[in-house]
Amino acid sequence: MKSVIVWFALLATVTGCKREPPPAPAAAPAAAPAASAAAPTPPAASSAGTAAGAIAEVPVLKLQTVQDQPYDLAAHRGKWVVVNFWATWCAPCIKEMPELSALDAMREHIEVIGLAYEEIEPQAMRDFLKTRPVVYPIAILDVYNPPADFATPRGLPMTYLIAPDGKVAKQFLGPVTAVEIETAIAAAGGPKA
């Protein structure tokens, strides 16, 4: 029995967390399955709202962080922004946090925003972050009303690389490393690591 539990824990760590989000309200359309790891940018859509599962060409993201600061993705134009959907219960998400934090701290042209995709109280999140501190802002998403300009995550972590012009340059399903992010930036014409 112990070997079965260890096997399942290892499988969850290797493949990423695929916890299903709570059911959407009856009026919300169903989301399409998430793209494969390091998927190319999906077809463009307007940022005035997207079809279920689609990603806006220039996504809008305005929210309040658990650090009690407003966050507006548009205010970060001119930099590469890593938008990381994650959860405290997701082992691969937690494993990538120190590397994302180091990337944010060490590269002036890269910023990270963590979007906690789970039901958790802000104080509980602040307490969690005391044991796993990061330099980038964290916001808690409403799982029943996630940001309209991003596809609903069907697995975690889910990461989007936003180019300096505000467009989605790449998306990653599953854990991502700083090297993969910097390689994607260089491939899209940005600075090389």
Strand order of the largest sheet: 5-4-3-6-7
Radius of gyration: 16 Å
Number of domains: 1
- What is the level 1 CATH name? Alpha Beta
For this structure, the CATH topology is Glutaredoxin
Sequence stretches where pLDDT stays below 50 over 5 or more residues: 1-15, 20-52
- CATH architecture title: 3-Layer(aba) Sandwich
Proportion in β-strands: 15-25%
Number of strands: 7
Q: How far apart lie the N and C ends?
A: 46 Å
The major beta sheet can be summarized as:
5 strands, mixed
Describe the structure.
The protein is α/β, with parallel strands linked by helices and 193 residues long. It has a single domain, classed as Glutaredoxin (3-Layer(aba) Sandwich), CATH 3.40.30.10. The protein has helices at 2-15, 91-106, 122-131, 178-187; strands spanning 62-64, 70-72, 80-86, 110-116, 138-140, 158-162, 168-173. The strands form two sheets. Strands 5-4-3-6-7 form a five-stranded mixed beta sheet, covered by helices on one side. Helix 2 (91-106) links the parallel strand 3 and strand 4. The radius of gyration is 16 Å and the shape is globular. The termini are far apart. Residues 1-15 and 20-52 have low confidence and may be disordered.
Q: Main traits of this protein?
A:
two-stranded antiparallel sheet; 193 residues; single chain; disordered N terminus; Glutaredoxin; 26% helix; 4 helices; alpha/beta; globular; five-stranded mixed sheet
